[in-house]
Amino acid sequence: GVQTCALPISLGGFVKNTNLLPGIGVIKGQTLAVIENQDFVDIQQNYLEAKNKLSFAEADFKRHTELFKDDVYSEQNVQQVTVEYKNLKAMVRSLEQKLLLIGINPNNLNENSISSTVNLVSPISGFLKAVNVNIGKYVSPSDVLFEIVNSEKLFLELTLFENDADKVNQGQRIRFFINTESEEHEGVISQTGKSVSDDKTYTVYASISSICKNLMPGMYVKIGRVHV
């Protein structure tokens, strides 16, 4: 199938770098484009500040809780410290999720690694069907920047004449060619039709068992051999 790739967070940005064209193969996790936005800096800075405050609030919370056991602090003071600690904890968790959405690992973030750019990575392996970005272009979260064909789930739809219907069965291995290529590829019959069409043809489906870098949806293939 075709999967679209857009910005994974409710922030836009300018395309700082991309060198991909339709038809190029990509792998899961590969950088498709570099997006720049100063708001990315704010998210990272807010996270680090909240994380530092949380460390102090956590120590203060533990201290007040221990002292309250000895009746040194009032219950009201403990409740106030507890609320502040829980609010900061929730804020840090929320900012962590925002960082993950824009492709930044919170565990690797520090004051020296703050950046105004993030990498837009491919969620799957496959081929680029469409590329809708240009360097310097502003893109919003609703824009479809890339369309990626998932090459791991492609299958063949084969059309046979009715007098050949009894020659293929589920589980048989086949060899096929992509368009005019000379390289053979391999597949396995996964499903056979249950009836003959009005044009006296019979449909068979096959899963692809070999790596076919140039195979994309809609292409014509030619059967070479069927192994009984």
Characterise the protein shown here.
- The chain has 228 residues and is of the alpha+beta class.
- Helix content is 26%, strand content 31%.
- It has 2 helices and 13 strands; from the N terminus they run E-E-E-E-H-H-E-E-E-E-E-E-E-E-E.
- It has helices at residues 38-69, 75-101, and strands spanning 2-5, 13-17, 25-26, 31-36, 117-121, 126-131, 138-139, 146-150, 155-161, 173-178, 185-192, 201-208, 221-227.
- The strands form 3 sheets. Strands 9-12-11-10-13 form a 5-stranded antiparallel sheet, with no helix packed on it.
- The longest helix is centred in the first third of the chain and has 32 residues, at 38-69.
Structural topology:
Layout (H helix, E strand, L loop, with lengths): L1 E4 L7 E5 L7 E2 L4 E6 L1 H32 L5 H27 L15 E5 L4 E6 L6 E2 L6 E5 L4 E7 L11 E6 L6 E8 L8 E8 L12 E7 L1
Antiparallel strand pairs: 1-8, 2-4, 2-7, 3-6, 4-5, 6-8, 9-12, 10-11, 10-13, 11-12
Helix pairs in contact: 1-2
Could you provide a short overview of the structure?
The protein has 228 residues and is an alpha+beta fold. Helices cover 26% and strands 31% of the residues. The longest helix has 32 residues, at 38-69.
